[in-house]
Specification:
Layout lengths: L1 H18 L6 H14 L23 H4 L9 H59 L62
Helix pairs in contact: 1-2
Amino acid sequence: MNDTSNIQKINSLARELMKHGQASSMDQAISLATERVNSGNIPEYLPQGGQASKEPAKPLPELAENAELPKGDVSTADIIEAVEKLVSAQQTAVSRMTNVVNQHTNQMQDISNKLNTLIAEITTLRQEVERLKQSPVAPPLRPKDAGSGQTQFKQEAAPPRPAPEQKKDGSGHARSGNYKPEDVSIEKFFYYGNRK
């Protein structure tokens, strides 16, 4: 039963070490947790029953608590060296995270610029479509004979011109329809056959 409680302590301590960034891998966290559990320099994280306590988790031992290690097992120089390694590992982790944040910021800025460009293009295209909807539609010009060397285009029919105002004179012309029945004889309108 003692082995099971030790394994539980090692697992929970290894998870805490990983969560707080004091170990870079689970194997390293387990080896650090095993050393601390075997030295007896850790507080109880789990009660005897194996269930988590209702109290908040106690923080990992600080440097001051590590200074109380037995002098036979660990020297002060070893503790300082371990702390320096930990600080340098944390500094490299911070610099890596800073680089990742900068990369993501640059990518977000690029995406934002591309999105603004697309929005401007869409706005321009919409304005052009509206302008084309409002302008009169002319059929596209097509060449008649593409192989003859010269292209001939079909001319569009001219729009009908408004009729010029007719003069309202007393004298009219028969062909224009502006005449009176007295002006023209009926024989000119109807053909009665040969008059010999």
